[in-house]
Every structure is written in structure tokens, then in C-alpha cells.
Amino acid sequence: MSFAELVLRIGVTFVSWVMLYMHLLMMLVVRLAQCPGGDVSPWQVTLMTGAMAFGSSFALLYGHGVRGMRDVFRYFALPLLVLVPWALWLSLPYLTGTTFGTLGVCEVRLAEISGAGAAGWQRVWAPVQLIVLLAIAVNGWRAWRPDAGQHP
What we know:
152 residues; mainly alpha; 0% strand
């Protein structure tokens, strides 16, 4: 393995972990949005970071095949034990209120009904986040396993 490939593999894996944690932290603070005037930009941003985190979750094992790196990157998965269930718990009210209900994300956040209703992208926000969280959980588990990154 050349030095360039070694650096690329380690870099891709590290950036993938950073992208996952960036998205999870954004999921945890999206509920702090105050919704002044119905501003839904924090939820739109988490849709974009969710797409990046979904792709990054599949690149986690790229650097695990480098000798000695498996044990280093393996422990990056430990915070997922807390962050993924917490993000899942915080996104469930949006699944019931926006996807299956008629409330917008700000209405669910503020627990009040303004009558504005949910836009089309707001209805898919919670299911998209659930899919992203599932991908993060599955690929985080794959990264935690002792045989992560080893090819048969």
C-alpha cells in the first residue's frame, strides 16, 4: 500500500466520523431553534447534513483495513451508543406530528398550532432522519466489531 493510499484511507475514515458526529450534534440542537416567524432553516440544514452523514456512514470502514488503525478508529463508535438513541428519541415527535399529522416542524417544536400546516419536505424530514440514524447505527456496529475492515 502506497503512502498516498494510506493517507487517503485514514483521512476518509476520520472525515466520515466527523461528518457523522456533526450531523448527530445538529440533530440534538435542532430542537433549540426558536422558530421566529416560522423559520425552518435548522431542519433544512439537518436534511442536507443527513444526506452527507448517510454517505459517510458507508465510508467508515475504508480506513479500518490499514494495519494498526482498526483499533484506533474502532473506539470512535462508542459515543454512538448515546447519541443515536437520543437523536432517535428527539425525532419521534416529528414523525407523529408532521409526517402522520398535519403540523409543521415549528408547530411540533413549540407545541402550538398556528394553522400553517406542513410543507412537503417537512413531512419527509423525520423518516429521512430515521433512515440516516439506522445507517449510522448499522455501520457504527460494523466499525465496532473486532473484524472490521478485514476482507475474507
